[in-house]
Specification:
The protein is built from 3 helices and no strands. The chain is mainly alpha-helical. The protein has one domain. The protein starts with 13 loop residues before the first helix and ends in a 26-residue tail after the last helix.
Length: 64
């Protein structure tokens, strides 16, 4: 079962629970740039055909 990724961020994701200093350090490394520049380029609709329409559990976001 395919579901598109939600635009809203999760309240309990690792980045929202992270202390501010650690978050700033993470954003200043390659991971911050990758998250900001590379991940939005992934078109999840290209993977829709890999999931059955009404059978199985919903997919995790491809970016994850």
């Amino acid at each position: 079962m395919y579901r598109p990724k939600r635009k809203q961020r999760s309240l309990f994701s690792a980045t929202t629970l992270m202390p501010d200093e650690k978050r700033r350090r993470l954003d200043s490394t390659w991971a911050g740039v990758f998250c900001e520049k590379a991940l939005p380029l992934i078109d999840e609709e290209l993977f829709r055909h890999l999931f059955h329409e009404d059978n199985g559990r919903p997919n995790k976001p491809v970016q994850t």
